[in-house]
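Problem 12. The chain below contains 276 residues. Write out its predicted structure in token notation.
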Amino acid sequence: MEFERAAGSDATIDRESKKVRVPFVLRDRPPVSPTGDYFDYVAQLAEEWCAQNARTYVLNGTMLYLNSIQVMEVHYGMKYEIGVDYGPQDKQSGSYQITYDGSGGMTNVTTGTVIGKFGDDAPADLDDVPNTIGVQGDDVRGVDIPTQAGKMTVNYRHPKAFLNRAYADKVMELIGFVNNATFLGFAAGEVRLRDPVFTESDAEASAGYVFEISKNRSNFTVAGITITEKKGWDVLDPIYADDDKDGKPVKKVLYFKTVRPAGREWKDFSGTFGWG
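Solution.
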């Protein structure tokens, strides 16, 4: 599908600031059943078409660069117009800055290694002392402790030719999800998107992305049980059973399971961001 210059509509020129808006219209009608909303479909199409066919505009011998695109829905599903803004700043040339914060996160731990015992009723052998933490009746409350985690902020100037609603919507859909392939050097399962922020001014367009990092682990021991593999943001969940030690009821860890929270399946990051 193609766009073309709008017939009978002239470009709007601000010669003092050297900015131009050029009107285009969608030449073909959108398909009867596009993937997703019609507006988002056309916005994505406009983005791709302009990046290939309308990246620059020459005004009196001066090269101007594509800065932004406005999509106008004249008739839903049938007629769309776009205004393409050009200016002296080249928003196609991207730059980025990555900040990595190694501060830990918090996790709830319900088991551990018993290193001491006190009181006349305590078992004689440490191995006989339950290693569960915070048992109250049938509940094992555990304790919150700092854990290895990281936070990475990517400030990306001009992550695409421009920032528009279609791109922002796609990024917002990734909030809380985890990468399904290597991203920014981290393996699948280790990166989770938290807070994207988009800004645009006359001078530049930029976006900031905050990612949380939890490294994949393998062959480590918890409560005497070897965990052969745990992907970064999967949850390690203990399964308990009632037990008896010296005639007293206790909680015993039978085994662990790893759980991927419902609705948080891994997703493609690089294909959405266009980098990484």
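Discussion. Residues 94-276 form one domain. Students who got a different answer should revisit the alignment rule from Section 12.3.
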